[in-house]
Amino acid sequence: MINPAKLIKLKGAWDRFAINHPKFIMFLNAVKKDVRQEGTIIEITVTTASGRSVSSNLKITDSDVELFQEISELLNK
Questions:
Q1: Residue 75: closest CA among 35, 17, 31, 27
Q2: Number of DSSP helices (H) and strands (E) in the chain, helices first
Q3: Cβ atoms 44, 57 nearer than 8 A
Q4: Total domain count for the chain?
Q5: Structural domain of residue 29, as residue ranges?
Q6: Nearest Cα to Cα of residue 64 among 72, 74, 56
Q7: Taking the C-alpha atoms of 69, 11, 28 and 57 in order, what is their torsion angle to the nearest 10 degrees?
């Protein structure tokens, strides 16, 4: 069972993240409809402070689309 207090805490953390990183939130809003389609490929590269880069990608499945919908509803976005 989901702890409502933890959900409220998560929502607050997300709101702070959105304030700290508005361009990333704008990016997510721009691609959110495309991402919610099976077959979409998401690729991400992380570069550490020391300059090391790690990249990965994933292809969205039908169950991923369902998960994104649930998260969207949870965050009222």
A1: 17
A2: 3, 2
A3: yes
A4: 1
A5: 4-75
A6: 72
A7: -70
pTM: 0.63
Rg (CA), the chain: 15
Q: Extract the tokens encoding 72.
A: 């969207």
Model pLDDT for residues 25-77, shown as the tens digit of each residue: 898 888 877 777 899 999 999 999 999 999 999 999 999 989 988 887 876 65
Residue 53's φ and ψ, nearest 5 degrees, are: -115, 140
In tens, the pLDDT along 60-73 reads 999 998 998 888 78
Query: What does residue 47 show for φ and ψ, rounded to 5 degrees?
Result: -115, 120
